Amino acid sequence: MYIGIVGLGLIGGSLAIDLRQQGHRVLGVSRRAETCQQAIDQGIVDEASTDLGLMATAQVVFLCTPLAAMATTVDQLLPHLSPATILTDVGSVKALVVDWIAPRWSNFVGGHPMAGKAESGLDVAEAGLFVDRAYVLTPIETTPAAAVETVAALAQSLQCRVYYCQPETHDRAVAWISHLPVMVSASLIAACAQEPDLTVLTLAQKLASSGFRDTSRVGGGTPELGIMMARYNQAALLKTLSSYRQQLDQIIQEIEQNNWVALEQRLSFTQAERTKYEF
Ligand code: NAP
Predict the structure, then answer these.
(1) How many whole angstroms from 13 Cα to the centroid of ligand 1?
(2) Which structural domain, as residue segments, surrounds residue 192?
């Protein structure tokens, strides 16, 4: 199959590596000529160009640019595609992307491979990034079944677990497990930084161990990632944040009132609830 990848970064590059290894012919388009050259030199793609015209022969195109670049990229890309070309994207937020692309290209399937790293760019792309990870597809009523089947088969060939849902359902789910944790973790780091006694703060920084490392990890990432989540998944994220604030208020109340029974019930509930997550 001729596969097009637009945006040769972490996700686009990693897809290209795996799909080329499977024998597909991989055509890559990226913004910078150096990235295209690097992708060719490292054998990540068969051909690469900064010109979207390279996508003319692709049967399936994966749109792998940052979310902010997707709308403009799609406008520039569509005139080059043959009508049978299946277009899919890998964006971490789905409703906005699907709302934008589906009316413009009927053969479009929204997608989100749930794999990643803190770093970005082609340098950190790697083989096998998607193995055993979830790959969410968000077809809507008008999405052709054959297009969904083709993208699902490609995702399965990467050894992903494929899930299907509405774009809005995806965004609400990732708000809970991906976007809210970033804001909670960032708030934890910011709250610690408010400690007025420098001796206490310095000691806390020296004593910090695995618990703080785990809970502060996602809040200590690049600001761009958090801004992307807040900007493109604003409504869903705000709902989860408000629910989280309610939980914090209840915990404060229980501790203020020495209500250890209620606190014990709460922590027993969360201990059991955590086992339901398929990490
Ligand atoms: P990334 O490593 O920064 O890769 C994006 C690449 O797109 C850049 O390396 C850049 O390449 C290229 N690019 C930027 N603007 C472009 C444009 N206008 N036209 C063509 N290429 C352009 O980012 P990523 O982490 O792979 O994320 C890409 C997409 O995957 C995003 O939509 C994100 O939501 C989604 N996603 C990310 C993760 C994650 O954990 N990172 C996980 C799942 C999905 P050059 O400038 O070097 O040419």
Answers:
(1) 9
(2) 169-274
Residues 166-190 have pLDDT tens digits of 999 999 999 999 999 999 999 999 9
**CA distance to 3, 173, 189, 218, per residue, from 214 (Å):** 38, 21, 12, 8
- How close is the Cα of 252 to the center of ligand 1, in Å? 41
First to last CA, the chain: 33
Reduced to 3 states, what is the DSSP secondary structure of residue 102?
coil
Among the candidates 122, 149, 165, a domain finishes at 165
Pocket of ligand 1 (CB under 6 A): 6-12, 30-32, 35, 64-67, 69, 73, 90-92, 112-113, 116, 120-122
Query: Which segments within 30-85 are labelled E, that is strand?
Result: 47-49, 60-63
pTM given for the model: 0.95
**Secondary structure element (H or E) that encloses residue 202, with its range:** helix 198-207
211 and 79 both lie in a single domain: no
